[in-house]
Every structure is written in C-alpha cells, then in structure tokens.
C-alpha cells in the first residue's frame, strides 16, 4: 500500500548527545575527517547505508544505541573534542581577520547551483562544484560570505542506463526535512518568506532554507509552499529544467528574491549587510535590478542607482560559448516587469536596455543574462587566463573601439577545495612530513609557491600510496558496475566477470565530466583498433574509467554516452574499460585519487577552466590534456603531458578529431605507458613516474587551491569593489551619472585633429625619446573630463600595435581661438623593429574602475593617419 501523506520523524537525542545535532547541521563535516569518523563510530553499518550523511544516520539509529552512547565516556570525550573544535573554527580569527581594515564587512555570493556534498544534491557539474568550493574556502579563510541559491525539490537528475546503454533520467523527490538544512524563521517562529509579483496580480512566494557551510550561511529559496498555485510551486522543481518562462522565473527568484532573502537574513540574525554582491554566471543577474529598485525607493533616480549598484558588483563569466548563456525573448522579459508585475516603479525599457544585444553581431530582440551581468557590474572576470582572453573577445561588442585585450574583464583562475578532494591517505602522508596543523594550513590558506616537503617523502611510500588508492578504486568500480548492470536488468549469474574488472597494478586513466559535444567523450574511440591495442597490450596495458551525464534534452550527448557504453560492454575489453552511471560528488571523491592519469580532451578553447584535473593533481594523478583552461596556464612537462591540437581555421571537425585522437594514442603508446611500466635500477620502482607525481604535488598543488582563488577574489575584486561601494554615496552616484550623461552627449564633438613628432625621418635609434604634440577638439568637455594618450608598440604588417605601452599626454596652456587644446608628451622608442604609435582620447573620472568603462574612445581620422605616416621602422 502507498502512504497518502509522508512525515519525517526526527530522533530525540539524549542530552549528552545533543552536540551531534549541531555537528550534523553544519556541513563542515563534509570536509572534516574527525567529524565524519565520529559519526561513523555511532553505527558503521548505518553510516554506510546513509551514504555518509549524518542527518540520515541520526534518523535511523535505534534509541537503544543512542542510550548506550550517552553513557559511553570514551565516545562523549571524542564528541566534546569534535564539538569544541567546531566552536573554535566558527569563532576564532582566521586569514581574513588578519587583513587590513578596508576589506568588505560582508559579500553576498549568488549561484544557480552549489555542490557542497552528495547529501545536498543541488548541483549538476563544474559550476556548482566550483560554487561549493568557493563557500568552503571562504569559510576556512574567515571571509564573511553569504551564499544565495535555490532549493530544488528534485535536484539534478539521477542517471541510469537501459540494457542497450541509453541514458535514463530519474528525479527523486527531496524532502528538505531530511536534508542538512533548517528553515529561516521570524522572531515569532513562523517561516521567513520572500515574494515576487507576477503578471495578472499573482505572486510567487518562497521560503528560505539555511544550510550552514562552516562559517558561511547558504540561503536557498524554495517555492514549494502552500501560498503558491501549482505552477508557482513548481518554479524550484529541478535544476536547469523547464522552458523559457520557467527558467526566467527561476532566475528572477534567484536574483530579486535572493537579495530580499539576504536582507531578511541580516535583519533576523544581525549579520552585517553585504557591501559587495558577486554573481556567479549570469543566472543571478537580476539581483542588480532589485538593488537599483531599493535605492530608487530611497530617492535616487535610476541612473544614479545604477552607478551605485555597479560599484559594489562583481560578475564572473564561466562559459566561452555564446550557446551556454541564458537568453530570453524581449517580450517575455517585458511582461514580467513594470506596473503590473515585478519592480513596478522602474521603466520596463530601462530594464530591457540592460540585457539587449544592441551591438554588432548581437540579436537585438534577445535579452542576454550575461550582457546584463556585465552592464550591472563594475568588475568582471573569466576563470582562467585563456578564458579571460576568450571572454574579452566574446564580449568585445560591449566596448566598441577598444582592442579585445583592453576589454575590462580580468581573470581569476579557479581552484578546488583541497580538504574536500584530497584522499585521507594523501593527507596523512603530508601530515607525517610537516604535522597536521601545517598540512591543514597548506591545503586551506595556501600561499607558498611550492610544497618542498614532498621532496622528502621516500619513493617507496609514494608508490605504495598510489597503488593503495588504485586498489580502492578497483573495489569501488566493481561495486558500482555490479549495481549498474542489475539496474540494466542483468541477473546475478550473468555478472561473474565483474570480479575480474580492472587490475590494481595496471595504469589507470580517468575521464569524468558533463557530456556536451565539445568535451568529446568519445574522442578515445576514433580508432578502436588502436584503443584495443592499448587496453590489451601484453606488457603495458591501460585501463579506463569513464563517467558523465548528458543534459536530459541533449540527445546528441546521450548518443555519445551510448556509443561509449556499447564499446565498454564488449566482452573483449570490458575488464579494461568501464562506464559508471550517475557521476556525482560521492563517486568523484573515489575516482580522482585512484587514477594515475586524468584525461581531458575538449575542443580548444571551449573549456573555461576545467577543475576536475586539479582535484586529480592534488592526489598525485598526472594530467594528460589539451592545452585549454587551467592546463594551458600551468602545464609543464615535469608533471604531465599536453595533447597537440589541430585548431587551425581550415581544419574540418572530423579531420581535427582524427588528428588529435592520433596524437593522444601516440602519447599513450610512446611516452605515458613506457614511463609507468619502466622500473629503475635497484629499487625496482618506476622512479621517473614517481618523480612526476612528486612534481605534480609540489609545484601544481599550491596553485590549484580554492584558498588561493578566494584570496585572489578578496584582494583583486572584493576589496576594490568595497572601496568603490563606500565612495559611491548618493551624491557621488548622482555626480557620476550626470557626468556620464554629459560625456555621452558631448562625445561626437571629441576629435584628434593634428599629430606631430620631433622625428624628421621614419628611422630612429633604440632609446630615442621623441616629443609628441597633439591638437584635439573637446567640444563641450574640458581636460578634466578626458585623458589624451599616446599608444605605442611593435606593429604587424597591417600596422596593428601589439603589446602596447600607454603614456598620458598633458594639456599645454589654454584652448586656442578655435577652441582646440594642445597636448604634449614624450614618446620613448624602447624596442627595435617596426614600431608605431597612435593617439586617442578616453573619458576620465576618479570613480571609473576602467577607462574603457563607457565604451567611448576617439582617435585620429583615417585621413589624418595617412597624412601623418605614423610608423617608425
């Protein structure tokens, strides 16, 4: 029989065990080994059955066992020690508290998904895992972050396979009462709520669930409440599901409702109000509109409020492909704003103007969430150096007249939260070298360029560690493979072969990620005969573990999964290559440490960062990857291999894949497998391989930390944004908005009229300094409104300046009778070869974060350039 109603019955813990409840509700347990060990000791079998989830564990332990523990002095001593450690962690000073006073009092961090732990399945892939690692690292560093997201009642889908290898999706119902979250409540005990106005006089209500991520509160909005109609209740049903309007409502709830949730949380708890708002990808972009509406309600006009909001906003873009950005039809957005819907006091046209693609190559009828994010943020970044370059090119239309390298989008390369992803065995090996506390600091705060202590670990210990981790992975794979085949309909009698799947002494390659086409899950299958030869080599075999989910609407991705599954089902190779369904955090934490090689072969440059290889590297796994994302930045032959790419303009997709697959096979056959299997002199160990593992840990380890990443965000983005926010009071915001309006109106009258230098010939010697004299027209503007610059550097055959040096020129005297100003300055010839310069005029104001901010620039006319002969050779 089926129940007509479901309850969650929580255990009543004996008084001595009450601290267990606090430990279970703070997600620090997900990266704190001593807390997990304590929960495991409560009931090892039930701990395993709960999937390592303390809330589920405590809900299943019999009262008799709890009574025994309440009288167990040894257990109570351990409980007191772990609870005391959490208290110290929550209240003690950390890295942030030791920094200068001008840091922000609080930062709100918005993301559509957060991967904290498998026990809170609110993530689909890299974006969510990155957001989770960001919160954890901020907690470890003491950064006063408030996370903001949505609570999806179905999370992301669970993946199984049909008998013929086709991906099937399942959406389990999540009961928040069974998750490690609590309702945020008003002082009278009623649930705190936020509401959004919808067209037709309806409302979208949402409760606020709180997940405590160490020191960081994570607020999660849930629309499945009785006050909503059925349609509105389903707004937070599943991650990345539904049609356009469903997604728009999710993103309005995340951005607008999220700001309201932050205000509610700060009102109820006394937490400092955020000075900086960070939107992790464009989904939360509407947060800027809500903050503009707040300021307009206090008396500011829209333009002034916009300047105030921009000053304290940071926007991070994660996609190098336009198709990865949410875009909505103009009319759909218009219907949800204005007098009969949300933000009624703001002119709908002003809302639309923020997101419309009104630039060359854009589609002017589409509302682009990333474009709105960039227009609402004074500071923006990509997530690796290469991705920063790609983003500047991709969004350059928003800053016409500027070279792509001057587009104001910087980069902060992603990192991963080492305590979450480093296997306990790896941590213990490091702790034996330098002590537990120093090892913990090295993994969380970071700061050193190299981990030199790794050099002192004997080869034998490194090799035994790696084999032990590989053996654990083999056990894990066989269990998961057996479960998968049972789900596919196989009987126990058919599955005897699984006991021989994988070998703990064979070179193990891992490949696990989402399955969009650009990540090329099946590149390894391009030449199946060569792959079979690698898998079945008599002396130097390899084995491959593959995992990944295709988006439910992506049949192309599902076909790739099926193609790989069918190959892995072949009885000739199924002991050497496996596909594991339902890739998630629980699987990943076993997979990264157990692999010897982490394979990554995306189409360059479509991988924004790609952090899975970082997690592998922290466990001594070597990377074999296309030079994309973070690997393009940090690759060295000392600790991995680069797959050559064929990304020339004239190469068609099939031919390129053939070339790159052949390069992958060549690397495996000629360089990777020989190094793994060759044994040194007396030790009998693969000493050259072990040295690469050592270099990976000592040189890559400190770079790939989320602690390093969050420190960079604090120093390079959050701190400057907080200073901008503080300097942008109402009067300053009005002044800046009026100045921008005046400059935009007057800019057509700004001209470069004449340029001359003291050089008499087009040939000069290195080290010469020339005098530059420029006559400019400023129209309605004055010298305080602009900066006149000389831009010089080496030039190519088309006279484009590369690696430019910029020197500001100074006005000389007063304007002439014709109203023109004269500017002068030096021009240093500091490099040999073809050399060129030009002159340009940019808007200048003390409150601009970048001289490109307005997208306005004036330079010499083509006639003037031709007349001047502005090249030195």
UniProtKB/TrEMBL annotation:
Requisite cofactors: pyridoxal 5'-phosphate
Catalytic activity: [(1->4)-alpha-D-glucosyl](n) + phosphate = [(1->4)-alpha-D-glucosyl](n-1) + alpha-D-glucose 1-phosphate
Enzyme class, first EC level, given as a word: transferase
Alphabetically ordered keywords of this record: Allosteric enzyme, Carbohydrate metabolism, Glycosyltransferase, Pyridoxal phosphate, Transferase
Keyword Electron transport: no
Keyword Transmembrane helix found: no
Source organism, top-level taxon: Bacteria
Coiled-coil regions listed in the entry: none
Domain DUF3417 as annotated: residue spans: 13-120
EC number: 2.4.1.1
PANTHER family xrefs: GLYCOGEN PHOSPHORYLASE
Task of the protein: Phosphorylase is an important allosteric enzyme in carbohydrate metabolism. Enzymes from different sources differ in their regulatory mechanisms and in their natural substrates. However, all known phosphorylases share catalytic and structural properties.
Family classification: Belongs to the glycogen phosphorylase family.
Protein name per UniProt: glycogen phosphorylase
Organism of origin: Streptomyces coeruleofuscus
């Amino acid at each position: 029989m089926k129940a007509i109603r479901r309850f969650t019955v929580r255990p009543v813990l004996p008084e001595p065990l009450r601290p267990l409840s606090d430990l279970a509700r703070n997600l620090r347990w997900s990266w704190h080994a001593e807390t997990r060990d304590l929960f495991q000791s409560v009931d090892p079998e039930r701990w395993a059955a709960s999937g390592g989830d303390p809330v589920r564990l405590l809900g299943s332990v019999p009262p008799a066992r709890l009574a025994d523990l309440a009288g167990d002095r040894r257990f109570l001593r351990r409980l007191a020690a772990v609870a005391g450690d959490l208290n110290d962690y929550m209240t003690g000073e950390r890295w942030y508290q030791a920094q200068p006073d001008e840091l922000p009092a609080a930062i709100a961090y918005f993301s559509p998904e957060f991967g904290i732990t498998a026990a809170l399945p609110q993530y689909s892939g890299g974006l969510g895992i990155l957001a989770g690692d960001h919160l954890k690292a901020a907690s470890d560093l003491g950064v006063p972050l408030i996370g903001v997201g949505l609570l999806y009642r179905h999370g992301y889908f669970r993946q199984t396979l049909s008998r013929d290898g086709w991906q099937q999706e399942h959406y389990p119902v999540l009961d928040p009462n069974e998750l490690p979250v609590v309702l945020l409540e008003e002082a009278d005990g009623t649930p705190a709520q936020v509401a959004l106005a919808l067209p037709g006089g309806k409302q979208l209500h949402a409760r606020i669930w709180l997940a405590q991520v160490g020191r960081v509160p994570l607020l999660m909005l849930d629309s499945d409440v009785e006050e909503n109609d059925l349609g509105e209740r389903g707004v937070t049903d599943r991650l990345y599901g539904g049609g356009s309007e469903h997604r728009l409502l999710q993103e309005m709830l995340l951005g607008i409702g999220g700001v309201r949730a932050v205000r509610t949380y700060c009102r109820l708890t006394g937490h400092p109000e955020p000075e900086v708002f960070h939107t992790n990808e464009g989904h939360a972009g509407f947060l800027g509109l809500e903050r503009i509406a707040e300021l307009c309600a206090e008396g500011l006009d829209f333009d002034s409020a916009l300047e105030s909001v921009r000053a304290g906003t940071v926007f991070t873009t994660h996609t190098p492909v336009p198709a990865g950005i949410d875009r909505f039809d103009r009319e759909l957005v218009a219907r949800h704003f204005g007098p009969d819907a949300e933000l009624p006091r703001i002119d709908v046209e002003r809302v639309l103007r923020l997101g419309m693609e009104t630039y060359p190559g854009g589609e002017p009828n589409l509302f682009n969430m990333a474009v709105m994010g960039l227009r609402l943020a004074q500071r923006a970044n990509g997530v690796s150096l290469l991705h920063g370059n790609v983003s500047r090119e991709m969004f350059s239309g928003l800053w016409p007249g500027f070279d792509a390298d001057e587009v104001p989008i910087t980069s902060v390369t992603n990192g991963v939260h080492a305590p979450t992803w480093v296997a306990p065995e790896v941590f213990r090996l490091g702790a034996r070298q330098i002590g537990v506390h120093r090892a913990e600091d090295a993994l969380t705060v970071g700061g050193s360029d190299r981990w030199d202590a790794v050099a002192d670990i004997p080869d034998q210990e490194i090799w035994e560690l790696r084999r032990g981790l590989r053996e654990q992975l083999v056990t894990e794979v066989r269990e998961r493979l057996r479960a998968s085949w049972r789900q596919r309909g196989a009987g126990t009698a058919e599955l005897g072969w699984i006991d021989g799947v994988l070998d703990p002494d064979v070179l193990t390659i891992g490949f696990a990620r989402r399955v969009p086409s650009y990540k090329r899950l099946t590149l390894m299958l391009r030449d199946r005969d060569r792959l079979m030869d690698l898998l079945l080599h008599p002396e130097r075999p390899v084995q491959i573990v593959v995992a990944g989910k295709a988006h439910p609407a992506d049949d192309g991705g599902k076909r790739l999964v099926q193609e790989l599954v069918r190959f892995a089902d072949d009885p000739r190779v199924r002991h050497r290559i496996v596909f594991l369904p339902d890739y998630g955090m629980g699987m990943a934490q076993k997979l990264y440490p157990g692999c010897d090689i982490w394979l990554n072969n995306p189409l360059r440059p479509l991988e924004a960062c790609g952090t899975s290889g970082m997690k592998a590297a922290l466990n001594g796994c070597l990377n074999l990857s296309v030079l994309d994302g973070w690997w393009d930045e940090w690759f060295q032959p000392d600790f991995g291999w680069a797959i050559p790419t064929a990304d020339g303009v004239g190469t068609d997709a099939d031919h390129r894949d053939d070339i790159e697959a052949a390069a992958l096979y060549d690397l495996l056959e000629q360089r990777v497998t020989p190094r793994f299997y060759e044994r040194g002199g007396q030790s009998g160990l693969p000493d050259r391989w072990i040295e690469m593992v050592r270099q990976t840990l000592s040189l890559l380890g400190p770079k790939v930390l989320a602690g390093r990443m969050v420190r960079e965000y604090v120093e390079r983005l959050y701190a400057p944004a907080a200073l901008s926010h503080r300097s942008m009071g109402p009067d300053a915001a009005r002044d800046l908005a009026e100045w921008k309006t005046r400059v935009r109106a007057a800019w057509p009258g700004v001209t470069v009229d004449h340029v001359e230098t003291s050089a008499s010939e087009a040939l000069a010697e290195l080290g010469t300094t020339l005098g530059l004299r420029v006559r400019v027209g400023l129209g309605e503007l004055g010298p305080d409104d602009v900066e006149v610059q000389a831009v010089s550097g080496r030039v190519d055959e088309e006279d484009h300046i590369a690696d430019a040096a910029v020197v500001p020129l100074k006005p000389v005297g007063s304007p002439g009778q014709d109203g023109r100003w004269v500017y002068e300055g030096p021009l240093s010839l500091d490099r040999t070869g073809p050399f060129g310069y030009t002159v340009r005029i940019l808007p200048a104001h003390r409150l601009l974060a970048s001289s490109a901010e307005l997208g306005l620039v004036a330079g010499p006319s083509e006639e003037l350039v031709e007349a001047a002969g502005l090249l030195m050779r």
